[in-house]
Amino acid sequence: MYAVFNDNLLTGNNLIDEQHREIIEKINKLVNTCENGTCQIESIKMLDFLADYTEKHFQEEEELQREVGYPGLVEHKKRHDEFRVAVKELHEMLEEEEGPSERFVKAVQENVIDWLYRHIKGFDCSVAAYINMAHLPERL
User: Fold this and answer.
1) How does DSSP assign 71-96, residue by residue?
2) 55-75: average pLDDT
């Protein structure tokens, strides 16, 4: 159940696309710790690392949206907040279950991998389209 970065996830913004690749790599490292039966502490460290990296990414993405005057910034930030809550819940689950369980792995699939795919294909691609139409008309 590893995440895969492919052309369907390209936004056209090199910085954002590279960060998405990196996020997917972090997700896969988290999944790997779960599948290898790694201890709870290792899984928590990997989840923390993923959370820190996505936080940096969200801040840069939101700053880009502010700079270009993207009208959907408030809604986009709400989606980022949903992800933050999901990661917090995953932390709690790891602590309650004393390590990565099947339920935890399923939650990673639904609340991290599936969420990320939907978010990139929807919200992030919308931002890229807005930037291209409003600020880079020569690309059209």
Assistant:
1) TTHHHHHHHHHHHHHHHHHHHHHHHH
2) 93
